Amino acid sequence: MSGPIRLIPDEGGAERTMQLRTLPLKRRRPAPPAEPDPAEELGLSDDPLDELAERLHDICADAVHPYEIAAFLESDGLSDEQAALLYGRPDAFTVAEELFEKVERRYPGPSSEFANPWRADPWRCVVRGLVFALPGLGYLLGANLFATTRMRFGLPSGMLALSIATLVSWGFNQALAHRAYRWLGRLRRREAAVCLAVGAPAGALLASAAAYVVGGPLGALWFAAGQSCYLGAATALLVLGREKFLLLALAPASVGAGVVLAVDVPETVRTVVLLASVALAVGLAVRELLVAARAGEQDGVDLKLPIRQEVPHLLFGLACGALTLIAGLGETIHQAVQAASHPAHAPVHGGVGSTPTGPAMIALTLSLGLAEWLLFRYRAMAVAALRTSHTTGQFTRRTGGILLGCLFIYLTTVAALDAAATVLWPGAPSLGVPQLGAMLLLGGSLWLALLLNAFGFSWSTALICLAAAVAESVGLLTGADPIVLQLIGCGTAALVLTATAGPALGRTTQHR
How many CA atoms lie within 13 A of 2 on its CB side? Predict the structure, then answer.
C-alpha cells in the first residue's frame, strides 16, 4: 500500500515508536513516560519578541515614543530583514511599536548615578562669602586716613574719591573676570592668565587715576590706590579658583581690625597692617598667574574673543556698584545735598557706629557666598525638573517654583544676617521696616540679575540695573529721600527682573 502509516490516536509523538492500529493491545510495547517540553521547563515564550522586551526593558520603559526605541534598534544594527527573520515582523518600526506596547512606561527621576554638572561645594561658597565680606574690615583700619573734619563736595574729604575708585574697579573687574572665564571655558588657562595679568594692573591704575582726578587727602588717595590693587589681585585669585589664598591674604587686616576694636592702635601700625594684606594679595596673585601661564600649553589654533561682549558686564558692574553705594552712603549723600541747598539748616553728620547701614552692608556681602551656591542649586534643580517633567507647562511651573524658593531662602538669610550683625555691631540701631525692605529689594534684584547673567541675558540685566542706578542717583542728587528712592528703584528692578526670569528660564532650551 502507499501513503504514510497512521499512528494510533493520542499516542503519537516524535520520540515514540510508531504502532500499527492492527497490532493487538497486549502485544504493544508500553509507552515511555512523557518528557517535559524544554521551552515549557525553562519558561520560554513562543514569541521571540518577549525576550527582546526583557533585555531592553530599561530603554523601552524610559521611551516616550516608539521612534526612540526604533532609533536604538537601528543604531544597534537591526535591519528590516533581520526583524523579519528573527522576530517575524516586517520591519524595525513594527518591532519598536510592539515593544513600546509590551513594556510599561516608567519616567525615572534623578538618580544618584545622574551626573549633574551644576553641583557646588558648599564650603567653597562659604569661603567666597568670607572673602567678599572681610575686606570691609580694612575700612576700620583706614578710617583715620580720611579727614572727617573737612568737607569736599558736601562729603568727608576723600570719601568721594574712594567711591569713584570703587565704582571704576567694580565695573572694570566685572568685565575682566567675564573675559577670563570665557578663556577658561575654552580650556585656554594660559590665555586666561595672560588676560588677568594684563587687565588687573590696568584696572588698578585706572581706578587710582580716577580717585586722583577727584582729589582728596593724600592718605585717602593712597588708600584708594591700595584698594584698587587689592581688588585687581582678588579678581585674579577668584577667577583662578584660589579663594583660600585670598583668605590668607586677608588675615592681617582681619586680625588688625579686631585689635582696633579693642584698643587704640597707632596710625603707623594700621598702615603697615593694610599694606601687608595688599602685598600678600598681590604677591599670591602674581605667583598663581605665573604658574597658570607656564603650565598651560600654547594652542596652535589662533582664537580671538571680541571685546564688545564685555561691555554689558562692564555696565552691570557699574550699576551694581552704584546701587550698593547708594544703599550704604545714601543717607550721607542726602545730608550733603541738603546742606548744600540749605546751609542754615545743615544736618549734623552722625558717626559711623550710629547708622544701620553698616550691619546691612555686612549682611549683603556675607550673603554673596550663599547667593552663588543658590545659583548652582537652581540650575541643578532645573536640570532635575527637565528630566522628570512630562510637558513644557509642567516644567515651567516647576522652574518657577524653584526660582521663588531660592529667592525666598536668600532674602530670609539676608534678613537673619542683618539681625545678627546689628546685635554684634556696637551701638548700631535696628533697621526699620522701610530700610529692611529697601535692603531686601536690593539683594533680590542683584541675585535675579546674577541668575539671568548666568543664562546669557547680559544686556537686559545690565540695562535694567543701570536704569535703576541712574534713576536713584538723579533722585538722590535732587534731594529726594534715599530710602524712598531705593524702594522705588530696586522694587521696580526686582519686578522687571522677575517678570523676565519667569518666562525666559521656563523654556526647556535654556537648561540643556
Answer: 0
Are the beta carbons of 406 and 374 closer than 8 angstroms? Answer: yes
Residues 325-380 pLDDT 10s: 999 888 888 888 887 776 655 544 444 444 567 788 888 988 999 999 999 999 99
Residues of the chain with pLDDT under 70: 1-46, 107-116, 146-157, 296-301, 342-356
CA 128 remoteness from chain centre: 13
202 Cβ partners below 8 Å, 6+ apart? Answer: 172
Q: Is 51 helix (H, G, I), strand (E, B) or coil?
A: helix
Which three three-digit cell numbers place residue 96? 519598536
With beta carbons less than 8 A apart as the criterion, state whether 507 and 455 touch: no
Helix (H) or strand (E) holding 156: strand 155-157
- Paired residues of 156 in beta bridges: 151
Q: Which residues is 155 bridged to in the sheet?
A: 152
Contact 460, 452 (CB under 8 A): yes
Cell of 381: 534643580
C-alpha–C-alpha distance, residues 218 and 435, integer Å:
34
Question: Torsion angle of alpha carbons 73, 74, 79, 83, nearest 10°?
Answer: 20
Q: What is the pTM of this model?
A: 0.76
- Dihedral (Cα; 474, 476, 480, 483), 10-degree rounding: 120
Scanning the structure block, which residue is given the C-alpha cell 512630562?
390
∠ at Cα 438 (132, 468), nearest 5°?
85
Measured CA to CA in angstroms, residue 404 lies from 4, 332, 426, 502 at distances of 84, 34, 35, 9
CA 239 from chain center: how many Å?
Answer: 14
Length of the chain: 512
Containing 150, the helix (H) or strand (E) segment is: strand 147-152
Q: Distance between CA atoms of 206 and 416, rounded to whole angstroms?
A: 37
CB 427 within 8 A of CB 475: no
Q: State how far the Cα of 283 lies from the Cα of 388, in Å rounded to an integer.
A: 49
Q: How many angstroms separate the CA atoms of 407 and 447, rounded? A: 8
Query: What cell was used for 206?
Result: 585706572
